[in-house]
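Narrative summary of target 7.
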Amino acid sequence: MLIHSSPNAASFLHAHQFKCPLPFPTAHLIQHSSLGCGFPKSAYLVTQMKKSLTFKCRSLGGQEEDYYLLDAPVSAGDGFSFSGGKYSDGSGPADEWFKQGKMVQAYLVCGSGEKAKDPIFGLKMASSSQASDDVFRWFCIERGNADNPTVVLIHGFPSQAYSYRKVLPVLSKDYHVIAFDWLGFGFSEKPQPKYGFDYTMEEYVSSLKSLIDELVPDKVSLVVQGYFSPIVVKYASEHQDKVNDLVLLNPPLPRAVVPSNSGTITLHFFCAVLKITDKHANLPSTLSVFGNFLLGEIFSQDPLRASDKALTSCGPYKMKEDDAMVYRRPYLTSGSSGFALNAITRAMKKQLKGYVEEMRSTLTGKNWKTRTTICWGQRDRWLNYDGVEDFCKSSKHKLVELPMAGHHVQEDCGEELAQIIAGLISKQR
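Modeled conformation, tokenized:
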């Protein structure tokens, strides 16, 4: 923040006023530089009062419409970012990752076509928060020979396709590998909720079908991590003819532990099972806070909470600065990432338990024919390992334990996981 002597600011147009108690008795100019505090690009402070100062703010120069940009081009910055999200003028790790991928169109946009407004101020949002006019754009990374069997790597909540960066080069030696960012995450589109996409779990199931149909004409093997597992199992149950293999990485599973002796279920046992089930069917506090009223809107705009803490609080993963720059970029460049995080968190808080219970019923049901493997990082701080082995035995699914990995298995032991996946999935197209 730079403080200089102020000229007369009365001539500035479209002024909005904000009160700020600061102990300066004379007129000054405060020029906004790198604070993500919600003010427009320039803020002028003019006062002769001793107890308080008055901010006078106007829109970016040259703009005819009198609305506040919540997100804007990186060169301009926006009210929910820090210096426009750029760490330097040169190319950074996030830029290099983006260059390796492509944008794929899938899933028709629904809605009235009305321009999105932010939920806090009710002001018109810029292009990154607007739904496409026709079909959504997804960011995808594609590696390996397209003639080989296809494996789709699906990240968890909240994360990005970038989490599979260590898996991709190993697995792509023998397979055609695709990783993508879900709508609302990473570099995929992030429409404002209620303006074309509401981030419900039903919408994610439908949109996943559209994307896979667009990417893979033949059969496919799916690898999914964490809290998006119930969505992928729901898709796979409806399209088993499309799926070769399914690999679940630390999914939320309600535990159905079989009594060891007479088969009689006591009240104590029943309560213990319910307790474990409830824990797996609810988001941990680190994530559920993003769905809270008002506090969720604030925390979801903080890249350290939305990316760093969410990824490192659930296991042994230690984030390097170059990786952090990729994960933070969506939150640094646009408020739309935070608003999408609010929406999916609230949807999961309402719907996750039902989807988790349905997933368990599907995986243990007689109609489930897809070969399924559960890989479990045993240092997961969010999901308890109790009952995982019993579930796999009762459902006759293969279990692979990874003692040194946490919730985000692909981050903690990416190369090892790639070798495991390569040994599990079918080499038939």
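The longest strand covers residues 135-143.
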